[in-house]
Amino acid sequence: ANTGSAAFKAPAGDAVLSPAVQRVVTENNLDPAAITPTGPKGNITKGDALAAIGAAAPAPAAAPAPRADHPREERVKMTRLRQTIARRLKESQNTAAQLTTFNEVDMTAIMALRNQYKDAFEKAHGVKLGFMSFFTKAVVHALKEIPAVNAEIDGTDIIYKNHYDIGVAVGTDKGLVVPVLRDADQLTLAGIEKGIGALGKAARDGELTLDQLQGGTFTITNGGTYGSLMSTPILNAPQSGILGMHNIVQRPMAVNGQVEIRPMMYVALSYDHRLVDGKEAVTFLVRIKQLLEDPARALLDL
Predict the structure, then answer these.
(1) Domain CATH number, residue 48
(2) Which of 170, 189, 209, 257 could be bridged to 203 by S-S, CB 3.0 to 4.6 A?
């Protein structure tokens, strides 16, 4: 009896395996000595081998239990500002026939001008000289030349604007807002910088009034502050145009037959094709490029 019992529980590593059992053992890389036999005379059956597969398989890792202070999902009510942003953007997308045209600007001249006069400018006006004032000036000049970009559609009418109220997109903790810089055509570079600075601070402090958010004729958005290289900005309805600024990147450029490293920025104009033709949109953006690459043109009204 003792001999029989020992044979029943002994490892079966030296036992002769049937072809069916051998196939299961080989295909699953099993150790016969680790399989408990249940067959006659202590033989390993196919069932024993199949059972050993499950026993040898590692148990699946249990999903980590959610931390009490960090649930796997969280439902939060949208703020009224976010709801308004979502509604207006979708309305803009559904209403306008939006297209985007692209170009690139060599920022060498503006950067040199800014570096040369930034200290004197800040000392004289109490505000730093940034790029937004140059872009705003260029936009106003281009809008005067291509008035359709400064217009809007109202039913079957076109409303041409003879004032230039530029919306400036500002990112805040609560969402994107677009306060309006009034009568930008009547402001100096210092006036533009002060106005944009004040609007940005009011936006971040949550102190913008409804009047400061309405009535813009054109919008500028600067994704470059976040590192964006290229984008297709969405229209701020009912406006017909929005200019997207982007990151300034040093790139090799062909200049007079020579390769030079230049600070380049991609610019994008999204426009409402119902009102603005492709030729007008391209001309507008080329005009922006010319005015930025040769800032003296704006000063001389050329």
Answers:
(1) 4.10.320
(2) 170
- Answer yes or no: 70 catalytic: no
Neighbours of 75 (CB within 10 A): 5
* Residues 124 and 8 reside in one and the same domain: no
Instruction: Note if 163 is an active site residue.
Output: no
Asked whether residue 180 falls in the same domain as residue 283, the answer is yes
The closest of 251, 205, 250, 200 to 221, measured between CA atoms, is: 200
Beta bridge partners of 166: 181, 218
| Residue 168 within a domain | yes
pLDDT digits (tens, 9 = 90+) for 120-177: 999 999 999 999 999 999 999 999 999 999 999 999 999 999 999 999 999 888 888 9
Catalytic member of 125, 185, 273, 294? 273
Q: Count how many domains the chain has.
A: 2
Q: What gap in Å lies between CA 127 and CA 295, rounded to an integer?
A: 20
Would the pLDDT of 9 be above 50?
Answer: no
